[in-house]
Amino acid sequence: MSAPYAAGMVPLSVLDLCPVAEGSTPADALANSLALARHAEALGYRRFWVAEHHNMEGIASAATAVVIAHLAAGTSTIRVGSGGIMLPNHSPLVIAEQFGTLAWLHPARIDLGLGRAPGTDLATVTAMRRRPEASDRFPQDVLELQALLGPARPGQTVRAEPGTGTEVPLWILGSSLFGAQLAAVLGLPFAFASHFAPTQLFQALEIYRERFEPSATLDAPYAMVALNGVAADTDAEARRLFTTVQQAFTNIRRGKRGKQLPPIDDIDAYWSPMEKAQAQHMLGFAVVGGPETVRDGLARAQAATQADEIMITSSIFDPSARRYSYSIIAELAGLAGPDPVLAGAGLAAAAPV
């Protein structure tokens, strides 16, 4: 194995979509995600996030708070959270109650990442009894949620019980400039979804850092970037494993959604030149290859973004290959297993842990 790519490497974390693979069930997906969370914990990854998506046969994390409870109960040190909860789909009070409950069950281990997209199609938004324009209230909803998770105030008539006083760490998620601006104004940590929307990554990071206003949560900006990471013993094997997510993004463009597909030998026979260009653009922030390639790719990503943390998502069909990919990346990054001090800490004034 190659030497670690950077002596002072930033923390690494995991974004998992609880993929339901072809020939499997949601129960299999949730079991595989728990196995991955335990594996990531043992390797020294800082946090393990799952995301809210609806009406998608290939994703088992729609009931995100329930999945977080499952993962947190099956681990002991790694932080577990949402990447994210799509707040326009919910009442801030309900989210405060859910994550307040999680915080009492798993003290100092729960993160609450918030996004303003619906995470689904318009018909499903309607089925959730939410209006599409609900996203316009996202900043106000974030402030309401933050207040509900904060200390009780004199004369407060509506409280999140449990939830009041838990101060679950909030993150603003984004795939555009809006989230960067909001996170900066509120003085909250910011995570950019560059694993599927890299176009405005660098502009968003610049805006967030330049406009950041210190808060009771953070005294300096803290930015996390997400990337697609697939590591294997060779470049060729990693590229083959990566065809699973390439097929998925191609099928989204075709209006076809289904379960996660196994890798294929010739992706160029699967997509058209236009589909290839579209998928490669969306998946452009990726590190795919054998150890040497991944080591260099991670170093370049860190140098280019100056991220405080990197979150890696690996949509690999075979669960064992997915765990092995994270093992390779952990060794390259010099991760040394779980840190009991970090695992038990809250949100520090300088950086979220």
Low-confidence stretches: 340-351
**Count of helical stretches:** 12
Please report the total strand number as a whole number.
9
CATH class: Alpha Beta
- The rounded Rg comes to 19 Å
Superfamily at the CATH H level? Luciferase-like domain
For the biggest β-sheet, the strand order reads 1-2-3-4-5-6-7-9
What's the N-to-C terminus distance?
29 Å
List keywords for this structure.
disordered C terminus; about 350 residues; alpha/beta; 8-stranded parallel barrel; about 15% strand; TIM Barrel; about 40% helix; 12 helices; 9 strands
Helix and strand layout, with pairings?
Elements: E1 12-16, H1 26-43, E2 47-50, H2 64-73, E3 79-86, H3 92-105, E4 110-115, H4 122-127, H5 138-149, E5 170-174, H6 177-186, E6 190-192, H7 201-211, E7 223-231, H8 235-253, H9 273-282, E8 286-289, H10 291-305, E9 309-313, H11 319-333, H12 340-344
Parallel strand pairs: 1-2, 1-9, 2-3, 3-4, 4-5, 5-6, 6-7, 7-8, 7-9
Can you put this structure into words, describing what you see?
The chain has 353 residues and is α/β, with parallel strands linked by helices. It has a single domain (12-153, 161-242, 286-343), classed as Luciferase-like domain (TIM Barrel, Alpha-Beta Barrel). The chain is 41% helix and 14% strand. It contains 12 helices and 9 strands. It has helices at 26-43, 64-73, 92-105, 122-127, 138-149, 177-186, 201-211, 235-253, 273-282, 291-305, 319-333, 340-344; strands at 12-16, 47-50, 79-86, 110-115, 170-174, 190-192, 223-231, 286-289, 309-313. An 8-stranded parallel beta barrel has the order 1-2-3-4-5-6-7-9, surrounded by 9 helices. α1 links the parallel β1 (12-16) and β2. α3 (92-105) packs parallel to α5 and α6 packs parallel to α7. The chain is globular, with a radius of gyration of 19 Å. The two termini are 29 Å apart. The model is unreliable at 340-351 (pLDDT under 50).
